């Protein structure tokens, strides 16, 4: 929707428009510090229901929004708040689930990476479905009914989640909202710092992947939305294959080469000057970032001593990362504006942030197991 907003609200700078999505992402992640603890305390189902209602309500109210401030309240605040209530618990649930069936036990213990990888493919699948819906319906139905169709899709998906998702670990009623002892662990600090830098760059690239195609390469809006589908579609197999491999070698070990390749690809954006080259860049970028995002919750679970604290620690990490996710797109947009509309400065910044992510993730692996190559972690 960012490209559509930029085309219809021409009096508002791109960096300002990007705050709509940034607020939504920030609330989705920062809410994890509260909702993650709700999972550990045994309140998963109520939080899932409330979050689902708020998000669907936000989308339907977004469909009747015509001004910037209205979109900030509906898409930015309400849908973000709803996502913040159910996102972290839902992800942590897969990390901590155990079944009485010995066969299924493997998928949530020794095959936790595969389980989470399969779960995160929904993110990439949504990144394909939603752009297709918007591209096909927006010219025919207009913004209002296009948004309502998206709302009905969300309603159906979330209804399935509410009906079937259930926690299996016994609740941990006592305990603080924040597990401050985590910050005394060097591996946790370095890992979250690496995740923070990665999302700083990642959300800028995702938000502006279509804008670059339109403004720098002269592609039409319809063609540019195809790139959003490509960057998400290519990620699907890598969100499954890479976590599956990580079950054998360890998620932290797998994260190092993935982040290194992602860094190299990020710097390659500077060399893109053709539509064909941009398609290639978007495809490889989508594969590497998809692999990274599928590994991050698995790796965090692997460095958490107790499974009944995964929800809390994952929520803490998301709360911190929310600030990089929120500021990344506006900062990139501001750099673009300062550079006369060019993407060069913002691309360099995003690539350097990805490089720092690699450095921190490598440091986390060192803090966990030193330089022992064969250590699974």
Automatic annotation (TrEMBL):
Q: In what way does this protein cross or attach to the membrane?
A: Multi-pass membrane protein
Q: Where in the cell is it found?
A: Membrane
GO MF annotation, one: transmembrane transporter activity
What is the protein's given name? Major facilitator superfamily (MFS) profile domain-containing protein
One Gene Ontology cellular component: membrane
- InterPro entries the record matches: MFS, MFS_dom, MFS_trans_sf, Proton-linked_MCT
Write down the PANTHER family for this protein, in alphabetical order. MAJOR FACILITATOR SUPERFAMILY (MFS) PROFILE DOMAIN-CONTAINING PROTEIN-RELATED, MONOCARBOXYLATE TRANSPORTER
Q: For this UniProt entry, which segments traverse the membrane?
A: 16-34, 41-64, 76-94, 114-133, 145-165, 186-204, 224-242, 254-272, 278-298, 310-328, 348-367
The organism named in the record is: Cytospora paraplurivora
């Amino acid at each position: 929707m960012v490209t559509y907003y930029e085309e219809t609200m021409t009096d508002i700078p791109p960096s300002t428009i990007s705050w709509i999505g940034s607020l939504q992402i920030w609330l989705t992640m920062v809410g994890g510090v509260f909702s993650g603890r709700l999972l550990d305390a045994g309140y998963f189902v109520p939080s899932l229901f409330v979050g689902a209602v708020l998000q669907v309500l936000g989308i339907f109210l977004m469909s009747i929004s015509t001004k910037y401030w209205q979109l900030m309240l509906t898409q930015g605040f309400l849908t973000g708040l709803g996502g913040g209530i159910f996102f972290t618990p839902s992800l942590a649930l897969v990390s901590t689930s155990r079944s009485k069936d010995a066969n299924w036990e493997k998928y949530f213990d020794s095959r936790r990476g595969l389980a989470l990888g399969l779960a995160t493919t929904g993110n990439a699948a949504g990144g394909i479905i939603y752009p297709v819906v918007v591209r096909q319906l927006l010219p025919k139905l207009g913004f209002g009914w296009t948004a309502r169709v998206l709302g009905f899709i969300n309603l159906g998906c979330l209804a399935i989640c509410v009906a079937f998702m259930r926690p299996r670990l016994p609740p941990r009623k006592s305990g603080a909202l924040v597990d401050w002892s985590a910050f005394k662990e060097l591996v946790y600090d370095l890992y979250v710092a690496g995740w923070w830098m990665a999302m700083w760059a990642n959300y800028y690239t995702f938000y502006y992947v279509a804008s670059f195609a339109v403004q720098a390469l002269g592609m039409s809006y319809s063609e540019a939305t195809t790139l959003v589908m490509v960057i998400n579609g290519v990620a699907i197999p890598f969100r499954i294959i890479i976590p599956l491999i990580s079950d054998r070698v360890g998620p932290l070990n797998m994260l190092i080469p993935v982040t290194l390749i992602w860094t190299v690809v990020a710097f390659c954006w500077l060399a893109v000057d053709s539509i064909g080259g941009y398609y290639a860049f978007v495809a490889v970028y989508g594969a590497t970032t998809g692999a990274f995002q599928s590994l991050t919750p698995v790796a965090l679970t692997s460095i958490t001593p107790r499974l009944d604290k995964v929800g809390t620690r994952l929520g803490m990490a998301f709360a911190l990362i929310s600030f990089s996710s929120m500021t990344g797109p506006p900062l990139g947009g501001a750099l673009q504006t300062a550079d006369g509309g060019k993407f060069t400065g913002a691309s360099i910044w995003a690539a350097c942030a990805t490089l720092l992510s690699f450095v921190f993730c490598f440091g986390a692996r060192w803090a966990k197991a030193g330089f022992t190559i064969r250590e699974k972690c």
